[in-house]
Design brief:
- This protein is of the alpha+beta class.
- It has a domain of 167 residues: Glutaredoxin.
- It is 38% helix and 11% strand.
- Strands 1-3-2-4-5 form a five-stranded mixed sheet.
- Strand 2, helix 2 and strand 3 form a beta-alpha-beta unit.
- It starts with 24 loop residues before the first helix and ends in an 18-residue tail after the last helix.
- GO terms for molecular function: isomerase activity.
- This is Protein-disulfide isomerase.
- Pfam families: Thioredoxin_4.
Length: 251
């Protein structure tokens, strides 16, 4: 049975109109001018105009971890992925479509380049990290999608001479540095220490109950909805973490 998914509350700003009376036009003008002068004097020299805040619901730029979907949603779906994994390559567009159709889910990437796919897997992970560093969440996922769309997979890497079309000086500077290596190493170690050794693997976390389920393999949408339903029905007083044993091994 498809679980009932709560709607996403929207931030609504209320604007109140004020009717200005013409009773004291000169007094009002004087007050406005005085306030403007005070503001101009109080501004620090060289202070720039504040940037307009991002629209409500827009994914913040800071990362990693890199997310797609609703960052304020009840569920976080972590994908343990390898950019050279052929099963991940096939599954990623399917999972992306599923997430786009479930407004209460955020998809989060977790690097897990397998030894059998090196060095191509880590090289492509570095590209995605640098794209994210330079352009934020959307740029990270764009790089992931591009790699999956062009790699020969299974450790063979990109075709000879194939270059990322959106390469920028910022991405190039990042690639020659060691910055992208840290999150890749950290996330790989975290996955291994938690017993995740196959890709793709998924961890569905209910932010409201604190419960989580770990699944291996390309899980279909109906199964993910059932998992969401189960986590939603879980008693909050139960243990804060729950993982299902893997019944599928993918590489």
């Amino acid at each position: 049975m498809e679980p009932k998914r709560p709607s996403i509350p929207m931030q609504i700003q209320a604007f109140r109109r004020r009717g200005w009376r013409s009773r004291w036009p000169w007094a009002l003008a004087a007050v406005v001018v005085a306030l403007l002068l005070i503001w101009l004097v109080s501004r620090s020299p060289g202070e720039s105009t504040p940037r307009t805040s991002a629209p409500a619901g827009e994914t913040p730029v800071a990362g990693p971890p890199w997310q797609m979907g609703n960052p304020e949603g009840r569920f976080t779906l972590t994908l343990y992925g390898d950019l050279e994994c052929p099963f991940c390559q096939t599954y990623f567009p399917v999972l992306k479509r599923w997430v786009s159709g479930n407004a209460d889910v955020a998809l989060q990437w977790h690097h897990l380049p397998l030894a059998a796919h090196e060095p191509a897997a880590s090289a492509e992970a570095r590209l995605a990290e640098c794209a994210g560093e330079a352009g934020g969440h959307a740029a990270f996922w764009q790089a992931v999608e591009w790699v999956y769309g062009h790699t020969r997979s299974d450790g063979q890497g990109l075709p000879e001479g194939q270059r990322y079309p959106d390469l920028t000086p910022a991405i190039e500077q990042c690639l020659v540095s060691e910055r992208p290596d840290a999150p890749i190493r950290t996330q790989t170690a975290e996955a291994t220490n938690s017993g995740v050794t196959a890709t793709p693997s998924l961890r569905l976390h209910d932010r409201q109950t604190g419960k989580a389920i770990l699944l291996q393999g390309p899980i279909e949408g109906d199964a993910l909805l059932s998992a969401m339903d189960m986590l939603s029905a879980t008693d909050n007083t139960a243990e804060p973490a729950h993982e299902l044993p893997a019944n599928t091994s993918r590489q």
